Amino acid sequence: MSQPAPPIPELKKVEAHQVNDEDPWKDDVLGRKPVAEYLTNVVSTISQPFVISLHSPYGTGKTTFIKCWQAHLRGKKYRTVYFNAWDSDFSKDALSAFMVAFKRGIEAPLPSADAATESALFDKIKKRFGKYGDAVKGLAKKQLVPILAKGVISKILGGETASELLKEISADKDVLAEMAGKFAQQAMEDQEAAEKSVEGFKKYLSEIVEEVVSAAGQGDPKTIVVLVDELDRCRPNYAVEVLEAIKHLFSVKGLVFILAVDDKQLRNSVRSVFGQSMKAKEYLRRFVDWNFELPIPPPDRYPNILLSKFRFTKLPCFDSATEYDSPDTFSKLFGELAQQCSLSLRTQDQCYGVANLVLRSLDPNSSALAPVLATLLVIRFSNKNTYDALRNSGAGSYHSLLSDWIAVKKIRGSSNDSWFGDISLLRELIKLWSLLSNRLLDDAGEFFNSVSRSYNSGGYRRPDPATQLKEERARALLLFVQSARYNNLYRNFSGEKTFIGLTIARIEGATLYLSQTK
Predict the structure, then answer these.
(1) By three-state DSSP, how is residue 51 classified?
(2) What are phi and psi of 54, to 5 degrees?
(3) For the whole prediction, is pTM greater than 0.85?
(4) pLDDT digits over 38-93, tens only?
(5) Torsion angle of alpha carbons 479, 482, 484, 490, nearest 10°?
(6) If phi over 0 gives left and psi between -120 and 50 gives alpha, with beta otherwise, what is residue 157?
């Protein structure tokens, strides 16, 4: 009696990384623990108010790193605050949203801390926060500029004629001049009051920070590390408010701020608030003392992680796969192309999500066409124009479109000694994918079989190593096509549909499903 087929793994989305507080780098799949250790050493040398910008492009794992580093810092007895600006940008008051996160962070007990010491500290902090209302009264008044004054000043600055203004306020030029003088005097007084309010709030905040750092044991850190995340994703006005608060209100001894941002997106937010002519880079320099770029992981590391998470090796379509149509082939080729086309980690997640649905939709023992799928997914998420041209064109155009893509993107071979080591191999693969259909498959298979027999014949002279490597890669092509031919590929074809056309249809079906289930 035949054994029952193993169950197909349950279809799941990739869940957000859960940090292990006791061992935050237990699943450090991107190898970022050394970066955290380096930054921790830097922070340990800072004694004055300081802001570090931790730059990395969108979708490259900043949030995961920040949360792991926070647990790492807490293990080193640092008090930390985590503020997700995007989660709170529904608020109309950035200061209050930030202070809620600040209170939550410093009241979080440290691992292995003395319970009595922590309890005494939290009682003191609670009393301090009980005076928060008094501390922000002046700041609130600063925002309550009389509407009438703002309206009149706005009209003057807007260039309306004196006669129009006189009609609205029923007064002559002397009266208008007197009113402008009073408004100017009031503006100066408001400014003085605002400056006193800011200083009063900073004094209040300094007292809280002093309570916290003075409770630290001998040799323990005397710094509170504030980690600000997702600032580049929130409303532009809100992002600027948070930056201004950090600069003007939270610049006190004992606080070190870490801004995890995509600099490019944050500059766009600044221009959205102040106009496209604004020199956003210079503006942001006012807030940041040191810029640090989070290193991008090697190209093969993250695809291999996703391969494991999605459990491709357990899918039936790979049960009888050859080396050249396997999960490993998919991962290696995808990783190389993803790096060369600058796909972010988040975009790679999306690619694997689509690939997961495509591969699950296949019949057992049918060819996954793994290299074709990997290549087309990278094109779809990195060069939509080329992908749309492929989708909307006939099979006769595939070869030229893909060859142009290789040339324009300057796709090159792998730096390692893999079967993708020579770019000419990818060109040959593309030619096969562009041409092969069910009508041509028999002829192609016979041709490749004859070449294979010739390669293995007893009278074949062994070539030099370079030529041998080239011929071995050529043979890999033959094996790939043969595996597709022998693994019931006919069932997957309709009419003259080629490897390219078939895979595009699969990708579009999976993408449509994912878009409808969000």
Answers:
(1) strand
(2) -100, 100
(3) no
(4) 999 999 999 899 999 999 887 778 898 999 999 999 999 999 999 999 988 888 78
(5) 170
(6) alpha
